[in-house]
Amino acid sequence: MADYVGALDSGTTSTRFMVFDHRGKVVAIDQKEHRQIFPKPGWVEHDPLEIRDRMFEVITGALSKAGLSADDLAAVGITNQRETAVVWDPNTGLPLHNAIVWQDTRTADLVAELGSVEGQDRFRSKTGLPLATYFTGPKISWMLDNVVDLRERAASGDAIFGTVDTWVLWNLTGGVNGGRHATDVTNASRTMLMDLDTLQWDDELLAVMRVPRSMLPAIRPSVGLFGTAVGSLDGVPVAGILGDQQAALFGQTCFEPGDAKNTYGTGCFMLLNTGTVRVPSDSGLLTTVGYQIGDQLPVYALEGSIAITGALVQWLRDNLGIIDNSEDVEVLARSVDDNGGVYFVPAFSGLFAPHWRSDARGVISGLTRFATKAHFARAALEATAFQTREVLDAMYEDSGVKLTTLKVDGGMVVNDLLMQFQADILDVPVVRPVVAETTALGAAYAAGLAVGFWESTEELKSNWGVGQTWQPAMANDRRQELLTAWRKAVQRTLDWVD
């Protein structure tokens, strides 16, 4: 019997392949970045062929590092950046446009038009989502209207669509030679084209967005067989797909209503398991599918989505040159005692949860001659914690659940300064598990569960272990002072775009 399970994690800035053993421990990993393409202000694109090539490279790389082959893997799962739209020709396997990334704001006019009469919540009762540039449906609509001949190609079957999981799955299972065109319920729930109750593409939504059903992948449960891999993974079942934030929920074993996690990556995403009942939000959160295991009822979640967190550190590195490497930000931020009165609201793509203001743009406020690049670094880290506090407050308003601890994961949780400030500003303990990269682990868990490598979610829970805990240590007066200043800074971002 195979001893391991693999996970392909196709994220916003990189693709990686990880191999896990039965205890959920990392056996092998390989990772490669891909380009971020910015054709115009507010536009963000990826090259789908580059993502495809990175996928095959990291699979080969990770297996080679560990001396493993396809025979050693019981299954492989996929997790992915969500809401990013890819359109390609199924006959040639070639993209018909660059992927339009979830951060992209080019659909702002279309989104405004869709909400001009009935408002931002026009489709919320059916989709759980507010009208926003974030989601995939308007991106497909934009491509159909702006890419030459695309609508005609779609009508003739020469153009199909997928979020990144679908693009990866199609290529991983053969591409033009029988690649599977499918997605899972978590990714489909982020398109604004799926009914949260039926878990199927909705005719009304498709008509409004002018998206032909023939372009769309089949929607399947998150845990179950999607196809069989080719190439370096030849013969391995592809048995699980989850959008990255739902994968982290699964990897953190948040299987009970009230369980919550926060993932710190390019953006920051807090999810609260609400069980088999979908909870509508009155506080700016999203109602989304958390996961679905086989033919069981789907598990729903409330989500607070923050667009820019880790990407802000990259911006300090790549755009301003304040640091040479991302990990340098903590050392620089520690060189000062506080933020020096500087607050950084990174509304580069507008504000996501709980504000949902596409007219907002980034602001650095509170500047004096005292401010240095070290204060910029500290303010950038604190922005992540402040935005998380806003989401947590909204989550409490909607659910009535007061968190006693927050499970955290993702690339930024290695930053001890950020994690301590997060505990301080939330006034709850912050807990990092032994395996902090739970997005890939969640995809592996889903795939392994589908093929019987793991028998139950209870077995998965037994794998989870505490790596480190940060206890709040800030006086309440100081916490409220910082939060008041942050809220003032957020107000300065609004109404920037006419």
Q: Would you give an account of this structure?
A:
The model has no long low-confidence stretch (mean pLDDT 93). With 498 residues, the chain is of the alpha+beta class. The protein contains 16 helices and 23 strands. The protein has helices at 48-66, 108-114, 124-127, 136-146, 150-155, 164-172, 185-188, 203-209, 244-251, 310-320, 328-334, 373-399, 416-426, 438-451, 457-463, 476-491; strands at residues 4-10, 14-20, 26-33, 45-46, 73-80, 85-88, 99-100, 160-163, 182-184, 194-195, 200-201, 218-220, 223-228, 237-243, 260-264, 268-275, 286-291, 299-306, 343-345, 363-365, 406-409, 430-433, 466-470. The strands form seven sheets. A seven-stranded mixed sheet has the order 17-18-16-15-21-22-23. It has a six-stranded mixed sheet with strand order 3-2-1-5-14-13, sandwiched between helices. A two-stranded antiparallel ribbon has the order 4-7. Helices cover 34% and strands 22% of the residues. A hairpin with a 5-residue loop joins strand 2 (14-20) and strand 3. The protein starts with a strand and ends in a 7-residue tail after the last helix.
Topology overview:
Layout (H helix, E strand, L loop, with lengths): L3 E7 L3 E7 L5 E8 L11 E2 L1 H19 L6 E8 L4 E4 L10 E2 L7 H7 L9 H4 L8 H11 L3 H6 L4 E4 H9 L9 E3 H4 L5 E2 L4 E2 L1 H7 L8 E3 L2 E6 L8 E7 H8 L8 E5 L3 E8 L10 E6 L7 E8 L3 H11 L7 H7 L8 E3 L17 E3 L7 H27 L6 E4 L6 H11 L3 E4 L4 H14 L5 H7 L2 E5 L5 H16 L7
